[in-house]
């Protein structure tokens, strides 16, 4: 009897060892996939949003600009550099087409380096920075003229729709528009105008013509939780359902957005996903909102490992980590301001 009990104990211990070993291995693989990109084809990019930059005339201590410069300097200091950085709207506190908005746009652009109309995060021009406009880029005059003149000089004629391909990934950048004013409820939970039929046609044509992994980027989210009155705030209005159906039908992996100043991930049924790192390739389209870079320093890494896309948790860095007053920024280019004043009559 004692011998039987001893053998039974040995068997139970072996089972427990195998079970917990498998958990440990799975945990290691998850951490490994989050932190280590082993293959040359594996890469990651950084998602920033809602930087709300103000020129030093309107931001005495240049806090917004220093926060942006600090987080950019931080993410490009990693041993494994990001392939690129995406910033999904509300780059400035206001843009529009007036002189004060031009100063804000110049302040944003001068946090980066520029070559042939493309912004880069590093002086070696190896980490491009791609942007979409937000509702604040339209303020105060419902115009994107300053945004196109100083930040994105390439895509005004394309209605701010463009595709970037990198390795096995295609990114579809779109403009979800200015504030929507036709429904009084949207004044409480600020919504965007959304996508026009031509935008939906453009997206469908491009989604169906690529076999790569697909990520869509815009300022306003398409999916959000209803408020206590049952109203879904913060989203865009026009063609929202058509957009969600397109992403579903053509297997878009992610829709990256900002606007809400919250870090949440939903599926199309508003189910919250909060375990990280999250392998998005195991789910239908996921709708990712990242936190802002206005009130604090936030960023989110998106990793492409083999055939899978992994979303990491939104990271908040302590402001105490940085000397914001002496953050290394590019100097303001006064000649650009002079050129803008000289060209004011041409507008």
Describe the structure.
It is a single chain. Helix 3 runs antiparallel to helix 8 and helix 6 runs parallel beside helix 7. Helix content is 29%, strand content 20%. The chain folds into two domains: 36 residues; 310 residues, Purple Acid Phosphatase, chain A, domain 2, CATH 3.60.21.10. It has 347 residues and is α/β, with parallel strands linked by helices. The C terminus is likely disordered. It starts with a helix and ends in a 5-residue tail after the last helix.
Q: Provide the CATH architecture of the largest domain.
A: 4-Layer Sandwich
Q: Total number of β-strand segments?
A: 17
What is the structural class? Answer: alpha/beta
Distance between the termini: 96 Å
Our count of domains comes out at 2
Note the run of SSEs as H and E: HEHEHEEEHHEEEHEEHEEEEEEEH
Shape: globular
Number of helices: 8
CATH topology of the largest domain: Purple Acid Phosphatase, chain A, domain 2
- Taking pLDDT < 50 over at least 5 consecutive residues as the criterion, the unreliable ranges are 14-35, 330-347
Main sheet overview: 9 strands, mixed
| Fraction of residues in β-strands | 15-25%
How much is the radius of gyration in Å? Answer: 23 Å
CATH homologous superfamily of the largest domain - what is it?
Metallo-dependent phosphatases
State mean pLDDT (0 to 100 scale): 85
CATH class assignment of the largest domain: Alpha Beta
Give the helix proportion (percent range): 25-40%
